[in-house]
Protein 1
Amino acid sequence: MLHQLQSFSQNSSSATGQALQAALRKVTTTEINRRGILKGAAGFVLAAHFLPGTAQAFEAYPTQGLNMPNGVRNDPHIFVSIDPDGQVTIIAHRSEMGTGSRTSLPMIIADEMEADWDRVTIVQAEGDEPKYGNQDTDGSRSLRHHIQPCREIGAAVRKMLEMAAAKKWAVSEDMVEASGHQVTHRTLGTRIGYGDLAAAAMALETPARDQLRFKTEQEFRYIGKGQVPIYDLHDITTGKAVYGADVNLPNMKFAVIARPPVVGATVKSVDDSAALAVPGVEKIIQIPVTPLGSKFKPLGGVAVIAKNTWAALQGRDALKIEWDRGEHGSFNTADYEKELRASVAKPGASVRNQGDTEAALKSSARTLTYEYYQPHLAHAPMEPPAAVAAFKDGKCEVWAPVQSPYTARTDTAEYLGLKPDDVRVNVTLLGGGFGRKSKADFATEAAFLAKQLGGSVKVQWTREDDIRNGYSHTSSVERIDVGLDADNKVTAWRHRSAAPSFLSTFVKDEGNQHEIEIGMGLENLPYEIANVSAEQCKAYAHTRIGWYRSVSNIPRAFAVQSATAELAAELGKDQKDFLIEMIGTDRVLEAKAAGLPGKFWNQYEPQEEFPFDTARLRAVAELAADKAGWGKSLPEGEGLGIAVHRSFVSYIAMVVHAKVENGTVKVPEVHVAIDCGFAANPERIRSQMQGACVFGMTTALHLGLTFEDGEVQQGNFNDYEMVRSDNFPEVVHTHIVPHPFSVHATGVGEPGVPPFIPALTNAIFNASGKRIRNLPIGDQLA
Amino acid sequence: MKITVNGVEHSFDGDLSMPALWYVRDELALNGSKFGCGTGLCGACTIHVDGEAVRGCLVSMRELDGKSVTTIEGLSEDGNHPVQVAWRDQNVPQCGYCQAGQIMQAASLLKSNPKPSDQEILSSMSGNICRCGCYQRIVSAVRQASTGA
């Protein structure tokens, strides 16, 4: 870090300086009948079946979206309105945290309804799932679950505009055509703008789905083109964009909170006299402390209420609090790592048993064991948690950067003892989410304080609060035992995982992982090996566990892709050739043949619509290798590394070019091959891949929380470092596998991170001979 | 004390140890400058003091007596400073939170060094963190604003 501080002073001399709701419902991937319709109370709940509206036959487009809490809505009257002057307003019901979904989903509606993008206004929905359907922006789901419903909304509006024009001209509907923000009389050429038709069109009932005509892919103006800039671009570049802390209300107070240094630690005594003496500090309010397993309830602690943020911060510094440290007060990372390693040394609970792995390991000519470690992580979005709340007449209104506003609303209502109808949650832009802001404890804190004050208040988390009092990503030890026969053929692969589960945030911790975590690369090794087993070994949580972008795929891809490269080196084989060899014959993974007790978790997506196709996995590996010039000769100290991983039902391979010198690694180039089905917004897919490489490099090089006596030792960007512009993956080339619309769009926000890390460490091995088995890399290259 | 912010003079009689970031945000409701770390490590709060980039979380009101401060809201009249235009041409932001600080840093760099080398761009911008990872486009945008290409 010192060199970075020096570089600041030199170079800036003037610078003084809701996923889980679904999970816990134990959703099973129900067979979705391609002919069946999932009926909802309101009648507009999306059908699993998509009827052909034209000669062009549309396939059914079922996704897990249909089974999410409150399902998927496709009622144009909810999502679209048109002003008399033709301005179209489209509701964005998913949160924007940088992936571009706030632009991409309305763009799909606008395209299908033939609206001019320059005449579209986007309005962010408040948290109201009974109205908008599921809003939990998580799991790389927004495009995957909503591309088809958005097309249905757009096609319905276009149809309604055509119906209104036909009625006005007293002709049949086939005599008119909506295009380019107006409807044209096919023979007379007469035109009428959308604004002039709006009132009549939007008064119509939504046409039946079999009455809709969908655009052909050739007719798309925006979908698949990547030419639409993000909607908030002007506001962001001029400082007008509104994030959580940017909401100001009349007579609003400012609050910061001293939270327990150890989760569950309670306030033994508090001396607030010095804090209250700070000019501007007005009040001290205690928030009840919650133990582990309290879901997204506030941690509790002592809040300082002041007339501005600075006074509140100074007041907090002046608080004298004595804590009773509680049951996690001796949690220590060094011991915990040993505990996890000991856990995977013993058999765990089987989650996959194909063939007879134990017998095969015993009878193998040689057994190789590989073990990988990843510490707890904090999300550290650039915007630390912040929220504003107002309380009046028994009702509470919140403004917050939350990924799941309806969860925030219902949780806050429950915490305050109010009905959900008496709480409103408005969604600002999110200054990064990465899973942190699916847990709206900070919004509930603001609501609680607003209620106590009977007024309005802004809660600001500092960076130290964010790093020390958030939801840690799981720490894990992944152990892989490989059996080889006398011909060095891999005959057995046993993967054991010990990692505390996010289940511990919701229910009593039994030391077991949730099916989501098991599904992320533990149960679905795609290698063609006769005997494969996977086991989860006990691991108990001592801090709040919460998923971080890409979740358990990070340690799993790191372990499996590292072990594959280690084996290749052991056998004297090329890393890429051996990877392709292990993937084996092109096939679709079958759960029963793979030795699973039930189905693959598969992101809860229907298996038949989102199969795990090893041909697609192999193809991205070959594409990335080919584009990177795999096999080319590089200077001493440089190397290419490859890794591939399927997550969020997308297939991604990366080839990283690493340059190891003076104890550090530089990445001049990355080739990313992504198969995410139909690519709705290629420009944002590229930006997500660029971002995933930076996020992956930060995670690989720097990130790790260490606990001593239950307290996180890191606190800011000096000891919890981020990749900066002086060392980042300089050029990321993204190669998108082209697919027609009929191939389901799959996740983009998260799946780029997991393959980057092992591709980097495999490249480091090829550059320097150093094998990284423990994250972060830190000073291991010195 | 007196302070000029985006061309408007204000008088201030509060806590002189308060960092400028909290003054512009909490007192003036100029929310473009962002809080990211509070210790000068991330650059999200970058403002200009008499034309030079400064971390708003580190500079106190005491140091700003009689000074002229520019925030992202005052960088240009119409939002079309060459750096802002380049940022839009390159579609740089993802979440956008750090971008005002990045833009203020880049504008300051180009004012003092209109034709920086790539190395000078990388090192000048290294005090500004982007967790989403927009660096590749940030560098392209600074280069575009510098060269017009």
Protein 2
Amino acid sequence: MSILTTSTKLPDFASMDPGPFRRMLRVLGKDRLALFGVILIILVLVAAALGQWIAPYPEEGFGVTNVPNRNLAPSFEHLLGTDQLGRDILSRILVGARPAMTVALGVVALAAVIGIPLGAIAGYRGGWIDNLLMRVTEIFQAFPPLLLAMIMVALLGPSLQNAGIALAISWWPWYSRLVRAEVRTLRERSYVEAARSIGVSAWIIVPRHILRNSLTPVLVQATVDIGTVVLAAGSLAFIGLGAQPPEPDWGLMIAEGRGVIFTHWWISTFPGLAIFVTVLGFNLLGDSIRDILDPRQVKR
Amino acid sequence: MWRFIASRIGSALLVLLVLTLVVFIFTRVIPSDPAVVYAGPKATPDMLERIRSELGFDRPLPIQYFDYLKGLVTGDWGNSLSTRRPVLMEFATRLPATLELLFAAIAFGLVAGVILGVLAVRRPGKLLDGCIRFLAIGGISMPAFWLGLLLQVLFVGGLGTLPATGQFSKEVDYVAPIDSVTGFALFDAFITGNWVAWSDGLAHLILPMLTLAAYPMGLIARMTRASMLEVQSQDYIFTANAYGLRDRLIKWRLALKNAIPPTLTVTGLSAAYALTGTFFVEVVFNWPGIGQFAANAMLAVDYPSILAITILGAAAYLVANLIVDILQARIDPRIREAQGAGS
Amino acid sequence: MNNILTIEQLRVEFSERGQVTNQPLRGIDLRIGAGEILGVVGETGCGKSLTGLAVLGLLPTGAKPTGRIAIDGADLDLTKPFPGRGDVVSLVFQNPGNAFNPVFTLGYQMDQVVRRHKSLDKRARRTHILGYLEQVGLPDPERVYESYAHELSGGMLQRAMIAMALVCEPKLLILDEPTTALDVTIAKQILELVLSLRDRFGFGVMLITHNLGIVREICDRVAVLYAGRVIETGETSRVLEDSSHPYTRGLLGALPARNLPGVPLVAIKGSVPARLVGITGCAFADRCPIAIDACRTIDPAQVPVPGSPGHVAACIRTGEV
């Protein structure tokens, strides 16, 4: 026990850096576009939290049809119009915010839960485990993630849940590589070497000294990825490989209005705008803070 | 150089082997039984049994996989379960249209993205830079299929200037049928001097191309901006200024040539990923490419087609990266040397 | 003697929200005659390079120059940015490895410079450039013309850089630490090359360096800069052998070659202030071993050093110690 207390009292050099989150706040003060992104994100989060209570016709949002009111253009009763089954589109969008955000958060969390431990083990242990894991992630990365997800959903059977699982499976390698790179630099730091030299076990060093300090970049990346996952899940739903009717899914709503786009343009346009606004918010924020991480990273 | 290309292809084959194996195993253990899909909803258990043995599902997995690999090499990729025609034939007839769209979109995205990226660094942090940044990130954030619908509403429904769907007007078949030379219809129309078909095809190409180009354009604009900023702080740009060379020459030639190689890496990646994008764009614009076929194959659990799409995805990545490597070597003599040394 | 370069009371200021935050040049006076090599020496941050940049019109953004700069008799308009002028003044850089664009051949880059300033056709330009490549002692000019920067050694690159500086037949050459990045033997060859080219073409040279050994070897005159001012100037031999300003003496004291074995090197204590704003008195007073109270209040003017013609120093104790 005494060894442990000694090691934890070693100066934590990594924490001397103000940290990405502190820097992020500083960036937001100056960068108006990033601030705009944050406002969009807050709007979407509010919709996700309170959507069913602020929606004008909540039951229609959940799928109750009202056929006599079908295909109404935007008006004061129906601000964004109604769809082909007479459901209020604004309500559908507001109610749909929660599943969209839930799936996005779930996918990112699942990918992180798979990716982070694997990356940490590979980075800390090195050797054949590291080699094997890196080859596996390379194979994943040599393939468009969205296409991989599409193929998996096709084989698992289309549903929102399967779309989420498939996206998480296509996404985790990015987190693994990010964590691995961080861990590999951190494990050479003097405070980690000091802990190792006095015999602290890896089970304590890795979570306590390494992961804690390498998680911030991963968290920032994950935040940014939420937007990308919303887009991916919407895409899957659009071609029928995600949420199924009558769920209030944004991608699905676009698909439902596609056939009548020239006569009833609002049915597809506003759900698409919801996806666009969400993704844009996260991307604007992410672009601003990406320089803190690796400016050369791309993914889709 | 050749050794370099060979090693790239070698590692791509490995990726392919693993991917097909995984997808293959998946197709055999999945909940949705392909035999059921193939036989239709009214099939009796007897029929299902017969179909299974017909499709070879009753034999051990390793043998099935080995047979599949053998088929790949000999050109028998199996029959599509939904169209009942050979998968390879389906691909051969549809792939050119997809590739034409893909090339056009990447070329447009590259040119527009680079121009925007260079314009953005004229005065970093100022209004123009901000506008370009919004445009670029907007392009990255836009759901392609939604952008396609919006463009249709705007240009077809609203302005009535461009055709909404398809690759050519129906009349082209009667008025000026295209002689197939390479299989790439628009390209063939051009080289055979079939201007009626060519201009008609071009008009059809514009909207899907813009839709598909939005994402690469945004990505490339951001990357070009970042690398231009880095290059502009280099000594050699300072030298060029000190010798009084014209600003336009310095920016668009001397600096840009240094900023292009990192931009190309991003272009290659987004080109590979844009293959997925074409699937959505083709559905929206009713483009006769591989995308619609792929979407249907996935909905129908048409596993021979799904396996072929997997191969296509991996091949797209390989080809895009090979092209990027070759271009980078042409631009930067240091990369040329590194590749010549055989890495 | 008519001067190629005349600088009078050159000041450069940076300000933020109307407040002057830094004044790196506080009234520089310099002149370079035709065929003359002037050494500009001083520690990092004393304003040597900035003086060169001001002459080239390449001050960093936000810098505001005032005073007078005349090149070959023509005054520059300091109020607006002016284009670089490879035909009158040209520049050779510290690090030849970074001074050439890595993705163009050296020939292409030199051709662009010639094209900008001379109206010659393509073939004439090539012959012209090859001629200068030969002049700077490069063995195989044709090959160098087709080479990329990474294919040549540092010494060859610096020769090529000098050739590029000469292709437009400038009147003034600014050499900014031209040998710092090179091996000692190569550095010596480059300096000899500069001397012989000067004799052949008769251009003036502003040699910016912190290395007094180089100054001693090739400079006709020397100007010692400290905190944005010329604190001592005159013929090289007089300034170096009979230095008057305590800062110059300090620099010489820190030079190993001058010290006898066993005698410890003397360093000047402290360092150049990072920001120069609102200085009263002599800027060197805080580091000066012979400072008196008056040094902190009186702004020292340049006064002739007694018994040493053409040699001035900006120290109120000149002639006393």
